[in-house]
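I am writing to request your help with a piece of structural work I have in hand. What I wish to show you is a protein chain and, alongside it, a tokenised description of its three-dimensional fold. Could you please explain, in whatever detail you think fit, how the structure tokens follow from the sequence? You will find the record immediately after this paragraph.
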Amino acid sequence: MPENKGYSILTKLQLFVLFSVFTLFSPIFSFANDVGNAKNTEIKSTEHIIAVDSSNDEEHAQPVAHEEAHEGFNPGKMILEHVKDAHDWHILDYHGHAVSIPLPVILYDNGLHVFMSSNFKHGHATVESKGNFYKLHEGKVFKTDANGAIELGDNETILNAKPLDFSITKNVMAMFIGAIIILLIFFSVAKAYKNRGNKAPKGLQSFIEPLILFIKDEVVIPSVGVKHHAKFLPMLLTIFFFIFINNLLGLIPIAPFGANLTGNIAVTLVLALIVFIVVNFSANKYYWKHIFMPDVPLALWILLIPIELFGVILKPFVLMLRLFANITAGHIIMLGFFSLIFIFGEKNVAAGYGTSILSVAFTLFMSFLELLVAFLQAYVFTLLTSLYIGAAVEEHHHAEEHH
């Protein structure tokens, strides 16, 4: 039996090491492909653009041929394409052609319009649906004429109407995949508890149980309290594993993974709104009394009450920005280091090769930090949420009650 146990531990350790090595090295190949994509797409292309002169009473629209001359490597464009959302899931470039997984485009514009994103031909084609025409321009869907003309106003603002977009984008699909993985994990663990009873955990159960106990015993109970922790524990565990697992999936650059889900401001905004609603709807009278009737002289109420109300809004806002900024910054820093190879390589081939040593070293170092950040950001978000909930449900006992 001890030999079997030792073999099981060794096998798990080997799998962990293999996963870590794969996670550390795979971003390099992913970023290299993104660089190649950015360079391949910077070729001459003609797009039907209409410049609208708003200085006169009547609009004089004049089609112009908009050509993008071949430029050098654009690191900013490459980085933004990597971290932002998209209507398809880019895999690789093959002989100068992008290979991607198309996703459903769902628009509402005087009716529902549903088609696959592959109809856009990576932004080069206009899609007709029920008599309306739509074009994908700079990652967004605009309503156009049959020629796919994009109207530009002052300061190059796009004047075309935008339909309501409910599309299944890359981040939405990544969220569905993450949710399915979470459900599979916890259904499996729950089944193991049901079948094994009080026996020692085994397999996936032995990996998940320490995380659950850590969040429960070291985060939720000390912050929320023994009396109320059971009420909020399911939500806090869901938040922790949602962020943690999606952070890890974002480090795997193979479709259908690699999306910058938790680095999307819309996702972190929704998480922050959930925390805001739960905290304020669960708060007791002592919480609101502390905000609207603080234990200070009345003359200070006019100063403290706005500050307390501002704090109620600021807390979830800070949660939103912290998660968004830290996850996005990690991707940007790694891509920035890797871009140095091509920036110096355009100046001198030898400089590019020389820079590659340091760039790859820093990229590997940042990839290792990202493994830590994946857990750390999930932990910090859950800890701060627990503290906010604990402050909202805390029961105040006055000193006179004990005499």
